[in-house]
Amino acid sequence: MEANPKFLNGRVAVITGGNRGIGRATALALAGAGAKIAIAGRNQEKINETLALLKEAGAEAAGFVCDVREEAQVKKLAADVVARFGAVHILMNNAGTAIRKNVIDFTMDEWRMLTDTNITGVWLCCKYFVPHMKGRGYGRIINLTSIMAHVSSTGRGVYSATKHAVAGLTKALALELIEDKITCVAISPGFIATDLTAPLRADPAKNQGILDQTPMHRWGEADEIASLALYICSNSAAFMTGNDVLMDGGFCAQ
């Protein structure tokens, strides 16, 4: 990767869902490489926790409360980030949600919650942040998809559909933004140990089931996803765009 450990000096990174889990780990990783960090989330307490960790690491960082389903809030977020930092170079669309239920059992409200968060939220962030990323000679969009963008399973159908949509959006954005030197790459994590998956890991039967399904027989770590995101932000990955990178312990190779 880069010889200079602070290769993101002068770059501004925006991470939705940056207040916990993979988003928090990525915020710390990019900050370690010198980036200024803007994290967005719905939980002010979690935002404050992450900001404390970033500032302890010596990073310049700010937190913003935002629901990515709401256009007015995303538009304001973009304006507030640019007012605070003066630019945007990296956008990580990490905010997402899931409901485990068979497709025909979804209510309209549940359908809208998943699609508004997982698809519309990504589109809104790109709509309002990308104009601020153009003309800088460098840009990175990282969209979090999932192994469910490659396969599906009972009870995961609607979630899977939203992640397939994000994978398609990633390809389209990559082609549209080529001339602006902004790359767009998706990351598809497998089962990752975060606070959101803690209930699954705490249930012996469910935990063992996931370990049995994963060829490496372990949970992935948020720091491993963060390391991939850091690489995508480097100049070493400048020829990478429009693709979806699996990091799943071999799950989708089966």
Which helices and strands appear, and what pairs or packs with what?
Layout: E1 12-16, H1 21-32, E2 36-41, H2 44-56, E3 61-65, H3 71-85, E4 90-93, H4 108-133, E5 139-144, H5 157-176, E6 182-189, E7 192-193, H6 198-202, H7 204-213, E8 220-221, H8 222-232, E9 244-247
Parallel strand pairs: 1-2, 1-4, 2-3, 4-5, 5-6, 6-9, 7-8
Keywords:
254 residues; alpha/beta; Rossmann fold; 44% helix; globular
CATH class: Alpha Beta
Mean pLDDT: 97
CATH architecture: 3-Layer(aba) Sandwich
Calculate the terminal CA-CA distance, rounded to whole Å: 30 Å
Order of helices and strands: EHEHEHEHEHEEHHEHE
Q: Work out the number of β strands.
A: 9
Largest sheet: 7 strands, parallel
Number of domains: 1
Strand order of the largest sheet: 3-2-1-4-5-6-9
Strand percentage lies at: 15-25%
**Helix proportion of residues, in percent?**
40-55%
The geometry reads as: globular
- Which class of secondary structure composition applies to the elements? alpha/beta
Number of helices: 8
Q: Look up the CATH topology.
A: Rossmann fold
User: Low-confidence stretches at least 5 residues in length (pLDDT < 50)?
Assistant: none
Radius of gyration: 17 Å
Assembly classification: single chain
**How would you name the CATH homologous superfamily?**
NAD(P)-binding Rossmann-like Domain
